Amino acid sequence: MAIKPTPPQSSTSPHPLTFPAHTFAKLAPKTYLNTHLNSAHGPVRPSGRSPTQTRTPTCHTGSLTHAHGSAVVRCGDTAVVCGVRGEILGAEDVPDYKAKTAEEIEEDDEHEMKYADTWERKLRKQKESSEEMARLGLLVPNLELATGCSPTHLPGGPPSTLAQTLSQRILTLLHTSNLLDMKDLRIWSRWPRSGSSSGSHVEEISQQDEPAQDSVKAFWVLYIDILFISLDGNPFDAAWLAVLDALKNTRLPSAWWDRDREMVLCSDVPREAQQLTVYGMPVPLSFGVFESDEEARGKRWVLADMDGFEEGLCRETVTVVVGEGEKVVRIEKEGGVGVGGKDVRGLVELAGQRRTEWLEVSGKEAS
Amino acid sequence: MDRRRVNGPPGGTAPPVYLPPGRTAAAPGRTRGPNEIRKIFLKTGLTPSAAGSAYLELETPSINHSNSLLDRTPALKLTCTVHGPRPLPRSSPFSPRLLLSTRVKFAPFAARQRRGYIPDSGERDLAAHLETALRGILIGGRWPKSGVDVIVTVLEGEEDCPRDALATGNQNGRTGGWGMMSILSGCITVASAALTDAGIDCVDIVTGGIAAIVRQPAAPAQLVLDPCPPDHEEIIAACVIGYLQSRDEVTETWAKGNITALSDGKGTTKMGFDTLIDHAVEAAMAARRVLVEALKEGTEAKIQNSQAKPPGRAMGT
C-alpha cells in the first residue's frame, strides 16, 4: 500500500502529516470511526448514515427458472440470492413414522376447538406444525459465503465457521418463528381437492375406485439455498430477508400419490401450483456496539445494520427479530455487556420500524 | 455426509416427477438467424467488496410464459469476482509471475437436478478451460510473488437436451455436455470483464464464442452461432474459443463431436473444423462489442462515483 501524504493546504502554519480519508480508515480504523461519531454535527457514520439509520433493502423475486421460489435481496453493498426447491420425501423413508389419517388430523382439530382462546389455539397449532417439520427435517437451509463475495471468504475448503453459524441461525429461526404450515408440505394419497376439476388426466384418476383411507404418503422437503453475491456487513439480516421473500414466492406443484405406480406424481400446470402460507413475516435487525477506548468513561454507540468496516470494530452484537404486532420473536446477543434491558426496548422499536419498511418494499415487488 | 452443512432427511429425497409426460408443446426451435447470437446483458462492479466483478446474463426466451412448469427454459446467468493481485502466502515458493487460479461453481439451483456443494469433475473441467483462456492474456511479469483468484458462480446454467426430451426424461443418450460449452463461452467473457474491472493489465480483452453444426430432422446440417441446446434436435459438433480480436489470437479451443466430411446440402462447401472455428470467432467478435460497451459504462460509472463522492475530509494525525 503506497501512502502519499497530501500536500499541506495552508502554508502559514506548520501542518501535520495528512492522509486521505480512506488511508486513515485503514491505518487507524478505531480512531477513524470514533472521530466520525464524535463529530461536531452530531454522530455520523463513515457511510453518512446516522447510528440508527439502516440501508434500504431492495428485492426481486422469481428470477430463477429451476427453483420453485427465488429472491434476490440487496441491502447497500450486501447482495444475496436465495432459491427454494421442493423435493419429495416418502413417508416410508421416515423411520418410525406413524401415518396419521385424515380423520385423525380432523380429530386433532376438534380437540383444539376446546381451547377457548382462538389466538392460543392458533399458536399451539403453529407450534405443533414447526415441531413436526423439525422432527422430519423438512427445511434444509444452507448458506454459502465461498462465492468470492468478499476477499475473506474464498472458495476451496469446507464452509467457514461464519457460514455454518449463519446456516444454523437461519434453521433455528425458521423453526422457532413458526413461519410455515405443515399442511402445505403434506402429500396425500388422494388427488388434491383444489385441482379436481382441471385437465384431462384428472378424470382418468378420479375414475379409479375411491381409496379406502386418505393418508399422508409423502412430504415436501424445502431445500433453501442462500448464495452471497456480495458481502458488506450484516449477512444475517440480508440472508433472512431473502429466505422470507423466496418462501413467499414459492409455488409447489400440486402432487398426489399414484397407486399404480406407487410413487408421487406432480402436475405441471402452473395454475394448480400451491403457494406457501407464510405466517407473521418476522424481520430481523442487527446492531453492533462500538466502544471507544480513549474515554475511560466508556462512551458507546449502538450502530444499526453495520457495514463491513464497522463490523470489524464491534465485538458486541445484538439481533432483534420482530414479528406481527411488534411481538419479539427472538433476541440474540453476544460479545459484551454494553446493551442493557432498557436499551433493548429501543432496539425492538427500531426493528419494528425496519419491519414496516421491509413489508413496504416486499409488497411493492409482489404487486 | 457433510456434517458442516444442513443435510436433508436421512432417508433421502427425490426430485418431483411430473405427469403427464410428452404433453408439452412442440419445441419452437431456433427463432434467431444462424448468424445471430443471443442478446447479452453484461455489467461490471456488482460486488464492491471484490477488486473486480461482473455479471452476465443471456436473453431469456419468451417461452417461459407457457402453460407447463416443464417448458421453462433457463437463461444463462453468471457472476464473476476477481480478488487480487495480492501477495502469495509466505509458505509458497517464489514465482516471478502473477499466479492465476480459477474456479467455477454451480449454484445448487443452477440445473434441473439439484447440485451439491462439493465440487464435481464438470466444474473442475470448466475451471481448467477458463484458466487456459485467461492465462495468456495477463501480463504476469508485472506482479511477481502475487496471485489472483477468478471465481465464477453459475446461478443458472444451460441445458443439454432438446426440450421434449427434457419433459419426458428420455435424453436419448444425449448427455453430450453441449450446455457446458455455452457456459464456458459465457465464463470467458464474464471473467475478462471482471479482470478489466479489477484493473489487471492484460494484452487485450478476451471474449468467448461458440459455433455448432446442428441438424433438425429431415433437414441438412447447418452451421449456427451461439446454439441454445434445447432448440436443436441434433448437435453434431460444437466449438468454443477464447479470442483476442486486436491481436487475432486464439487462447483457448474446445471442440467436440463429429466434424469430418459434412456438406450443407448444396454439396459445395464442407463444414470442416476450420469453418467451425471461423464461425466461433465471429461469435466472439460479436460478444466483444457488448463487452467493450459494458466496460465503457462501468468506467464511466466509476468516474461519476468518485466525482460525486469526494473522498471525505482529510484528517490530520
How would you briefly describe this protein structure?
Chain A has 367 residues and is an alpha+beta fold.
Question: What does this protein look like?
Answer:
The complex is a heterodimer of chains A (367) and B (317). Chain A has 367 residues and is an alpha+beta fold. Chain A is built from nine helices and 15 strands. Chain A has helices at residues 21-27, 29-37, 102-113, 118-136, 161-176, 200-206, 235-249, 308-311, 341-366, and strands at 18-19, 57-61, 69-75, 78-90, 139-144, 186-188, 216-230, 251-252, 255-258, 263-267, 274-275, 283-291, 300-304, 316-322, 328-334. In chain A, strands 2, 3, 4, 5, 6 and 7 form a six-stranded mixed sheet that branches. A four-stranded antiparallel sheet of chain A has the order 13-12-14-15. A two-stranded antiparallel sheet of chain A has the order 8-11. The longest helix of chain A has 26 residues, at 341-366. Chain A is elongated. With 317 residues, chain B is α+β, with helices and mostly antiparallel strands. Chain B has one domain: Ribosomal Protein S5, domain 2 (2-Layer Sandwich). Helices cover 24% and strands 25% of the residues of chain B. Chain B contains four helices and eleven strands. In chain B, the strands form two sheets. Chain B has a five-stranded mixed sheet. In chain B, strands 8-7-9-10 form a four-stranded antiparallel sheet. In chain B, helix 1 (121-135) packs across helix 3 (178-197) and helix 3 runs parallel beside helix 4. Chain B is globular, with a radius of gyration of 22 Å. The interface between A and B is large, with 76 and 62 residues.
Q: Summarize model confidence as the mean pLDDT of chain A.
A: 84
Name the helix and strand elements of chain B from N-terminus to C-terminus, one letter apiece: EEEEEHEHHEEEEHE
End-to-end Cα distance of chain A, whole Å, is: 49 Å
Calculate the terminal CA-CA distance of chain B, rounded to whole Å: 54 Å
> What is the percent of helical residues of chain A?
25-40%
**CATH top level assignment of chain B:** Alpha Beta
**Class from secondary-structure proportions of chain B:** alpha+beta
Query: What portion of the residues of chain A fall into strands of 2 or more residues?
Result: 25-35%
Could you name the CATH homologous superfamily of chain B? GHMP Kinase, N-terminal domain
| Total of helices of chain B | 4
Radius of gyration of chain B: 22 Å
Could you spell the SSE succession of chain A in H and E letters?
Answer: EHHEEEHHEHEHEHEEEEEEHEEH
* Number of helices, counting only DSSP H or I runs of 4 residues or more of chain A: 9
Strand content of chain B: 25-35%
Q: In the CATH hierarchy, what is the architecture of chain B at level 2?
A: 2-Layer Sandwich
